[in-house]
Every structure is written in C-alpha cells, then in structure tokens.
Design brief:
79 residues; mainly alpha; 3 helices
Length: 79
C-alpha cells in the first residue's frame, strides 16, 4: 500500500462518513417528533431521553469520524 492509496482511502472514508452524519442529522431534525415517538415506544423511553440519546449518538459519531478518518487523512496529506 502506498501513501497515495491510503490518502485516497481515508479521504473517501471521511467524505462518506460526513455524508452519513449530515443525512442522519437532517433526518433527526426534520422527523424529530415522529421518530422519537417510535423509538420511545420501542425502547420504553421518554421522548426527552430519546432526543438526548440522538444528540449523544450524533456527537460521538462526529468525534469518531474526525479522529479515525479526518485526522489520518490530514496526517497523510501533510507527510
């Protein structure tokens, strides 16, 4: 594996993960009441707890994408 190949792989991983994050965020924001009601009934949770869980999920996914996709790509680009 060359540095160019790894840079390309990490670049596409970053793009795809941020696209998924943006799509998920858009769905949570636009369908917030309906989907939190569905998940609240599925897991016997209050809607407020479900909304907090969504926020934690989105925050953790963003941090993981930055740490494991964006930063390796940036390091490879700088090398």
């Amino acid at each position: 594996m060359t540095q160019e190949f790894l840079t390309t792989v990490f670049g596409w991983m970053t793009i795809l993960n941020f696209a998924l994050l943006a799509f998920t965020t858009l769905m949570v924001v636009t369908l917030q009441d309906w989907i939190s009601g569905v998940h609240g009934r599925m897991f016997q949770m209050d809607q407020a707890d479900v909304k907090r869980a969504y926020f934690r999920y989105l925050a953790n996914y963003k941090i993981l994408t930055i740490v494991f996709c964006l930063m390796p790509w940036a390091a490879l680009k700088l090398a």
